[in-house]
Amino acid sequence: MKISICTFLAVFLFTAKAFSQEDFKPKLGLIDRASLEMTAYPEDSTADAVFLYDYGNVQFSYVDQIGLVMIAKFWVRIKILKESALDRASVSIPYGESGSFIKDETISDIEGYTYNLVGNKIETTNLTRKSIIREKISSKYYGCKFNLQNVRKGSVIEYSYTKTTPLNFKDKPDTWTFQSTIPAKWSEYNITIPNMLYYKINMAGYVPLYISKRESVPINIGTSRLNGDGMAYRLVVKNSPAFSNESFITTPGDYVSKISFELSSISIPGETVKNYSQEWKDVDRTLLMDGGFGGQLKKFAFIKEIKAEIVKKSTDPTEKMNLAYAYIQQNIKWDGNGGLASKDGVKKAFENKKGNVSDINLMLTGLLRELDIEADPLVLSTRSNGRVFESIPLLEGFDYVVSHVKIGEKTFLLDATQRNTVPGVLPEFALAGIGRIVPEKNEGSFINLTPKLMLSRLEKIEADISPVDGTLKGKYSISLGGYEALRWRDKYVLEPESTYSDLVKKQNPEWEIDNFKVNNKNERLSESVEISYDFEIDSDGGNPETFYFNPMLTGRIKENPFKAPTRIYPVDFTAGSSTSFMGNFKIPDGYYIEEIPKVEIITLPEKAGKFAYQIKQNENMISVNSIVMLNRPSFSAEEYELLREFYDRIVKKHAQPLVLKKKK
After folding, report:
1. What's the pTM?
2. From CA 574, how far away is CA 387, in angstroms rounded?
3. Residue 565: which CATH number?
4. How far is CA 618 from CA 399, 474, 624, in A?
5. How far is Cα 458 from Cα 582, in angstroms, rounded to an integer?
């Protein structure tokens, strides 16, 4: 058996025999009293339901006239803890039909039970055959649907079924996930693979295996020609936590613990070995041979006039790159669609002045090549699509294409779909780890998609404080740089200025705002967006003798974004960040700060982050400086506790008010 194991944090190992842990093997149709008496799950008191048992078992067999099939048996037992989980009693099992019996999937052996504790007696309600119906999900898939009866808060529901899948319809088992939106006391997956089938087995996630077992076993396929040895696997996760879509992650599929399969080859005795496995060079070749990808880079006569105009303007390679990028960026509109293949052809997109991401960035790549600039398409996976792993050569993992340019020793990543970016900067949604360069002749390669920019905010306030009137009056300004500027431009650059000013006024209802201005809305995209306005605040923070106010009028971090006490997943901020606040407050003669807060400086290990906070008084001027910096875009689960404490201390410091006292 060829095994390819991909891990994130936890290390999964297949062992020759099971560990000595406690085993769990319940009986279908028989419930224990303790499960019915449970009112809350001890491991997660917030759970509205819990998998008491989630079981899958896959075997391979041979059926006359059909051939090899996968026989998958599933068994689910769920405790309903809250009424919000009652919909789990409605079950729909998808299966495929191709119109030919040699390829159709089938669902059989359905059993279902509902258990309730009535008084001191266990009451069982069986699923009836007439309640099982067939519904159409899509042109290719149907659902076997049923509702378990007599289900209420406190019930335990249980059902099992068998799914038979011809390898002519699907050549690999379904992905098994050990986690879902509710916790699981016991999640078990078994599969026995005959030696004539070679699968790459890919495991990922952060929850460790409780039992990991594999052993060589004899297999009876159903025909003597195919009978022989195989490998049996048993994998168990115990007390798996519910997966919650936490903040600062890419997409849930990158984090849940799961096992998936890719067919590498079939070696049936007496027949030629059929190879399905591919290497990255095969993926590259597939792309270059595809008419919607590589085929679009061969003929660019339609763009010769644009090439001529650029050549007239400059002979410098970098300037020519910038001119080509600006032309495509400003003249070809993105329709919002991703994908690797051109929709109707690059030439058609050029004529219509509109296309998908492949149309636009393959057009840019071709134009750059016409200008004798080394340019190749680079394929990647967006954050919502999930990470790509070098150990798994699959074309299906990619859903976006940009242009990779090399001029001398410098490299640039260009995405001309983005109206508000500059050459070398990818949008945040495209920053998901790695991308693959697909050159025309040489072997492709991976590069890290390291963010070129940070999220940068600098807020300033110059204000006069009048304790007698209870007012703060002054000028506010903010400078948005890097990805903060890009976020703002993407949202507001095509909107009237009043759209953003109205939002600011809505967010600060106690402020009177005048002279609202936005500078560099989109004139110089490599520079910051500058916003300023005058403001006045009526404060109820005391009286002329004692005046209270929080100097962090803006830029204050009011709550910790990391509320969970622990986290098993890494934290992904997309990019590093720098958030600064500078305040200068003029107070009337005769006032002083009752107690100046202590200077706070916190640094994360290896210079990963820093928080600095300081307040000074010099005669009648109070200066406040706060800076929060994260120098890395991601942090491991082991660093989570430090990161959470880091923000706890920021929140606490930012909440401290100042007390102005009038001298006696």
Report:
1. 0.86
2. 13
3. 2.60.120.1130
4. 57, 19, 12
5. 8
